[in-house]
Amino acid sequence: MKLLENQSKQCFLDMETHLRALLLKINTCESMLQPLPNECSFQVLVHTKRLTLSQMQESSTFMDFPWIRSENTNKSQQGKDEPVIIPIRSCSTQAFVLQCFVEEKKTKK
Known about the structure:
Elements: H1 2-28, H2 50-57, E1 84-92, E2 97-104
GO cellular component, one term: zeta DNA polymerase complex
InterPro entries: HORMA_dom_sf (IPR036570), Mad2-like (IPR045091)
């Protein structure tokens, strides 16, 4: 059982290290990007497998969080306004895979 505790601690340390690196990268990536518009926003998207979702739903705190299901986008309806995707950082741990990117409009204002 001690081995599992050590693995769990190491997993959390890995997650913390990756999240710190991500936050530092976000803080320094301004030079790569266009100036932020006033109507700028951000999203955190979580993709899960069906088994993971069912396990999460068993938790008593699951319903306390305002989850919203994403809508599938129809590729044929995407047009000229499709954003340019700029990768910021990605990492992979035992607990999750994280990809951080910025979507910018193609046209500059």
